[in-house]
Design a protein that fits this description.
- It contains 13 helices and no strands.
- It is mostly helical and 263 residues long.
- It starts with a helix and ends with a helix.
Length: 263
């Protein structure tokens, strides 16, 4: 019973990808009753399946709308920017100043809506950078790490990647995100939003919007957007892993019979 339970968990991880090539290879093996697969063979299959599954998550994130249209990973405005937006809406002087400012410096387009869209497009453009880093983590996974994933909880693989790749992802993502934010126009929009705090509604040099509202925002969007983009990737990986672990039998009885034997 213990071996069957462990085998079910192993299959669940193997199922993290929907690669027909991998599934067909396993399905074409002799049925139960031939020589059993060794633990090393199963772990090798685990690594290959994880690699394809991670690629699948990266592909989802990097599609047009991969972040923006997915409410679970959509990057929302930073809290300080959202606070600024709400304070503008709640202050008649600041609201009038904002309308004047965007008409003059942003063609009348709302800065906050533009920022939200362009920031998420930047994340989608940068997401592809995660592929090689995830691949490296799979290649260097030790035998004990793999066993821990096989016997772990619903998100054991996701937690492993968070633990082993987060710092690398941030280092690789940050310049990519900075470049993507510039290309999508998010950085320029953010600069205008930041500069609005120094805008003098009366034009008399007496006060600024920032002083009127008693609010400030971070000088750069890069770090926030990078962190949230990475969080979104890990969410997608975890979602796939949890779903497949919960329903391993959905992936074909022949595969179960070959890898784990009949009950």
């Amino acid at each position: 019973m213990k071996n069957q339970l462990r085998s079910t968990v192993i299959f669940a991880i193997l199922g993290i990808c929907s690669s027909c090539e991998i599934l067909n290879q396993v399905a074409s093996l002799p049925s139960s009753g031939s020589l059993p697969l060794t633990e090393s063979e199963i772990i090798s299959g685990l690594k290959e399946a994880l690699n394809v599954g991670l690629d699948n998550s990266v592909d989802k994130a990097s599609l047009a709308g991969g972040y923006l249209k997915n409410e679970a990973i959509k990057i929302l405005l930073p809290k300080d920017v959202l606070d600024l937006k709400e304070k503008i809406e709640g202050n008649s002087i600041a609201s009038a100043a904002y309308n004047t400012y965007v008409n003059r410096f942003n063609g009348g387009s709302d800065l906050f809506n533009e920022l939200l869209k362009s920031m998420n497009r930047g994340a989608e453009n940068a997401a592809k950078k995660a592929g090689p880093i995830f691949l490296g983590a799979v290649k260097t996974m030790s035998f004990n790490d793999a066993k821990g994933i096989l016997n772990g909880g619903d998100k054991a693989a996701t937690q492993y990647f968070e633990r082993t790749t987060s710092s690398q992802l941030f280092s690789a993502f940050n310049p990519e995100m900075k470049s993507a934010l510039q290309n999508t126009g998010a950085s320029k929009v953010y600069e205008k939003t930041y500069d609005f705090l120094n805008y003098d509604p009366a034009g008399l040099g007496i006060t600024t919007v920032g002083k009127i509202l008693d609010v400030s925002i971070a000088p750069s969007l890069d770090q926030y957007a990078t962190t949230k983009a990475i969080d979104g990737l890990f969410y997608l990986v975890g979602e796939e892993e949890t779903k497949i672990r919960a329903n391993p039998y959905d992936y074909g009885k022949r595969i179960l019979e070959r890898v784990f034997g009949k009950n």
